[in-house]
Design a protein that fits this description.
By secondary structure, the protein is mainly alpha-helical. The chain has 14 helices and two strands; from the N terminus they run αααααααααβαβαααα. The protein folds into two domains: 153 residues, no CATH class; 218 residues, MFS general substrate transporter like domains (Growth Hormone, Chain: A, Up-down Bundle), CATH 1.20.1250. A two-stranded parallel sheet has the order 1-2. Helix 10 links the parallel strand 1 and strand 2. Helix 7 packs antiparallel against helix 11 and helix 8 packs antiparallel against helix 9. It is a multi-pass membrane protein.
């Protein structure tokens, strides 16, 4: 009886999908159908709770890092955020292989245990006397390791347009890359530009993220109806254009500068004469050092010559990216699934997951290094360039991004 339970647990969710089997012709039984939807609803709840936890952490990670280790800068923040996806990417094939040969509950229980342990470590990284930022790096990597997917690897099917598959993976990579770098830089950017304290940054950015979440839900429902009229490819193209506009608006313009941290300098009042320097030096000891320093750190040289990004610019940009990202995200998944066709998609979906994890590794590192060294103008200009290249790629492969059934003449597009 025990062996039967193990065999049932290792059975594919839709039954034995091999040629000649009953499920191969019928697709799935009523029992399998009910079981599948129970599993799907559990996954919905799991993903919801996981996303809530991730959102809470991502908005507070920069102030937390600054508080526990004064030596950490924005470039190190990129590595901390990237470590989550790195751990996830490393663990996914391990747990996937494990679940192929053992009951699925084993890797699931282990991943949950690692996640709980890693989050406890994250909560207490402030306790050690030194090297706290490295403890945070390890903790976030372990959290990602515990959050790894346990999708089963299925046998890939033939007769698939491999060019369309590769192109969709690249498109999905860029979509995740763009959003990963945006959510990474939001907190440092607002603290630098608007002289927000850590508490203000967590609160205000949390509110902004919540609004974007509501906006995304509306977009998800809207694109489902819109895709029936204009198709997934057109929505993906439109989403990328909206994202480009969002980042273009985020480019700094004008002649107003951010408040400089550590110095009694405000906007355009950069000391040019000996007298102004003496006045700044005289005022600085009289400041209340119990207050948290705010503004753009003087260590970032670009703070002295790059204009500030106005709050209206930032909010408009966030709203546009909040429209473009969910549109591109859901259409990438939809197109990819349709390109692969009706047969098992495990291996190909594994590649898509890997490309998304790679994007979440490289995006935070890319933006944090550029932002710290060169400022928002260079950083967001390069992002705009990446989006333009992605749009060109989509236009080149546009006619190949069609459903498996359409390509093979089973239905008309």
């Amino acid at each position: 009886m025990a062996s039967m339970g193990v065999d049932a647990e290792q059975e594919p969710l839709l039954g034995d999908l091999t040629p000649g089997s009953r499920e191969w012709d019928i697709i799935e039984t009523e029992e399998h159908y009910k079981s599948r939807w129970i599993s799907i609803r559990i996954l919905y709840l799991t993903m919801f709770l996981s996303s809530v936890g991730f959102s809470i952490v991502i908005m507070s990670i920069w102030p937390y890092l600054q508080k526990i280790d004064q030596t950490a800068d924005a470039s190190f923040l990129g590595w901390v955020i990237a470590s989550f996806s790195l751990g996830q990417m490393v663990a996914s094939p391990i747990f996937g292989l494990w679940s192929n040969y053992r009951p699925r509950k084993e890797p699931l229980i282990v991943s949950i245990f690692i996640s709980v342990t890693a989050n406890c470590l994250y909560a207490y990284v402030h306790v050690p006397a030194s090297h706290n930022k490295y403890y945070m790096l390890i903790a976030r990597g372990l959290v990602g390791f515990g959050a790894a997917s346990t999708d089963e690897a299925q046998v890939p099917q033939g007769n698939i347009d491999q060019v369309a598959v590769v192109a969709t993976n690249v498109l999905f990579f860029v979509v995740l890359f763009i959003f990963a770098l945006f959510e990474t830089i939001v907190t440092p950017l607002t603290m630098d530009m608007y002289a927000w304290t850590r508490e203000q940054a967590v609160l205000y950015n949390g509110i902004i993220l919540a609004v974007l979440g509501v906006e995304s839900v509306i977009i998800f429902m809207g694109v489902k109806l819109l895709s029936k009229k204009i198709g997934e490819r057109a929505i993906l193209l439109g989403g990328l254009i909206v994202v480009w506009v969002g980042f273009f608006i985020l480019l700094p313009w004008g002649n107003q500068f951010p408040k400089i941290q550590w110095e009694d300098l405000h906007n355009n009042s950069i000391p040019n004469t000996f007298g102004e320097i003496i006045i700044a030096f005289w005022k600085s000891p009289r400041e209340d050092h119990n207050e948290e320093p705010t503004g753009c750190p003087i260590e970032q040289a670009w703070c002295l010559y790059i204009p500030m990004i106005h709050l209206a610019q930032f909010l408009t940009s966030a709203a546009l990216i909040g429209v473009g990202y969910p549109s591109c995200n859901v259409m990438s998944y939809t197109l990819y699934s349709k390109i692969l066709g009706p047969k098992p998609q495990g291996v190909y979906m594994g590649w898509l997951t890997a490309s998304g994890s790679a994007a979440r590794i490289l995006g935070p590192v890319f933006i944090s290094q550029l932002y710290t060294s060169w400022g928002p103008r260079w950083a967001f200009s390069l992002v705009c360039g990446v989006v333009v290249l992605t749009i060109l790629l989509l236009l080149v492969v546009y006619k190949r991004l069609v459903a498996f059934s359409v390509r093979h003449g089973r239905i008309q597009e």
